Amino acid sequence: MAVGLPWFFFCLFALHGALGYSKINLEEKIENLEKKLELMYDIVTEITSENVDLKTRLKALEDLVTDGKHFENRQREPFRDSGNPNAAQMTFPLRTNSSNNQINKNIDERKVTESDIKNNISLERKRKDFVTILPSTSTPSVIAFHAYLSKDSSGPLGAHHILQFDVVPLNRGNGYNVFDGIFIVPATGTYVFTWSFMSEGHGRVDTQLMKNADIIGTRYADSLFSTVWDFATGTVVTEVNQGDHVYVRLGLASTRRVRSIPESRTTFSGWLLS
Questions:
Q1: pLDDT tens across 80-123, in order?
Q2: Which SMART domains does this one have (predicted)?
Q3: 3-state SS assignment for residue 100
Q4: Are residues 237 and 153 part of one domain?
Q5: SS3 label, residue 87
Q6: Contact, 189 vs 252, CB < 8 A?
Q7: How far is Cα 49 from Cα 167, in angstroms, rounded to an integer?
Q8: Quick check: 110 and 91 in contact, CB under 8 A?
Q9: β-strands 182-184, 258-259 pairing
């Protein structure tokens, strides 16, 4: 009996230690699972946001295709109504950025069949119809845009990430694309581009203003060793050509988020000087 009692207490102590260790181990596993669940939730949220963005882009592309088909049908209608059986055989020049005089010259040089003359279809009427259906390619009198981020980035952003400024109060000339954050230059000239951004406490944001693949401006906001937000603005005056792509991207991966709040927006703007 004297031997059995100490052995009983020894077994009880060992069992208590094992259960205590198992409890601590279980708590650690639960904590790790909670962290993994939070990470998966963030990933699912980001994927859902990207999916919505892709659906919006697809809808915009479908609308463009539909508008293109409608425009093509409108081009053909004046010649279908002319009563000319050979209207489908006539060829027309593509319109470029030439003057109206050059357009009229090209219209006069198009092919006209003998059947047109026999049917008394006036060349003047064809010129009028053709000019009516030509799309306008004139340069806008005012080119200017302003856009900003509606909210903070969801987390740190990678190097060369293009900032997509999703709110566009001004887009004269329709050069700025809200879907990818890129300004496509509508007309050659001298432009002013300016961008402002903010880093949060213990964060750093390095930005680059890009023209196609060339860096034409750099600025950074650095709060890496401070709890106070930092704010920076860059401005560049440059010559650009029609069709050039101008955008703001990160030069390096950001430390923490890119901030954009109602009191201090992260913005991108530009306008044509001359």
A1: 454 544 444 444 444 444 444 444 444 444 444 445 444 444 44
A2: C1Q
A3: helix
A4: yes
A5: helix
A6: no
A7: 16
A8: yes
A9: unpaired
Q: Which residue has the tokens 């119809």?
A: 129
Same domain, 250 and 265: yes
CA dihedral for 13, 18, 22, 24, sign (positive or negative): positive
Report whether 192 contacts 236 (CB < 8 A).
yes
Using CA atoms, how far residue 109 sits from 91, 105, 131, in Å, is 10, 6, 14
Backbone φ and ψ for 138, nearest 5 degrees, come out as -70, 150
CATH of the domain at 227: 2.60.120.40
Q: What Rg value do the Cα atoms of the chain yield, rounded?
A: 33
Contact criterion met (CB below 8 Å) for 226 and 201: yes
Instruction: In whole angstroms, give the CA distance from residue 259 to residue 180.
Output: 19
Domain assignment present for 69: no
Alpha helices in the chain (DSSP H): 4-80, 100-108, 114-118, 123-133
Cα gap 90→57, rounded to integer Å: 37
- Within this chain, do residues 146 and 127 fall inside the same structural domain, yes or no? no
The answer, as to whether pTM is greater than 0.70, is no
Statement to judge: residues 148 and 94 lie in one domain: no
